[in-house]
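Bug report (template v2)

What were you trying to do?
Predict the complex of my protein with calcium ion.

What happened?
Run completed; filing so the output is reviewed.

Input:
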Amino acid sequence: MNRKQRILIIEDETAIRTGLMDVFVYHGYEVDSAADGPEGLHKALSGTFDLIVLDVMLPGMDGFAICDRIRAQDRDQPIIMLTARGSDEDIIRGLTLGADDYVAKPFSVAQLVLRVQAVLRRTGYANDAGDILHLGDTVEIDTRNLCGRRQGETISFTRREMALLAYLNAHGGRAVSREELLHKVWGYARHAQIETRTVDIHIAKLRRKIEVDPGEPVYLVTVRGAGYRLLSE
Ligand code: CA
């Protein structure tokens, strides 16, 4: 049986926090919560959450700082931010810091649940596929457990790296653009003005893990002007 997916809710308003906890428990998730910034950050960094719902305005440390700190630790768990309605600045700032999506307050709970489910689906390639990916005869990747072996040596992956690999793999070796990856793997809105360098940095990290010679990649290759391809043979 699959384990329940775990959600952390960081929100200082008691009514919203407890209301969201009830709703997500009802939808079959395991839920934990924090009522201020420092506690939220602590839980986010120490727990193993599949997704974090993060309010922007919090006592002690705001949601932007928390998002930034989580990403600085290379924690790739999905984050949905609760922003002030109509504040484009909040939305852009949150997405730039690496949030996966946002919902503007006051929000409809049904809408938030849909966003959570969508983000978990997008980031869940690793869990859904749940099998072994072979790259040539040198690399074996266990997509469910975020680990693998390269020439007998153990390698491990972050959730985001695995989602990226799984997405490329699912697209049958065609070249996938950086914009598409930002949209599908990171969940950024299409045409969002996001630095595509984020993708390049992750690709470079992946190459150091899966390529025998990261400078001369044979599996995760660049297609000039088109993006990246994953060749499994
Ligand atoms: Ca708040």
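What did the reviewer find?
The pocket of calcium ion is lined by residues 12-13, 55, 57-58 (CB under 6 Å). The first helix runs from residue 14 to 26.
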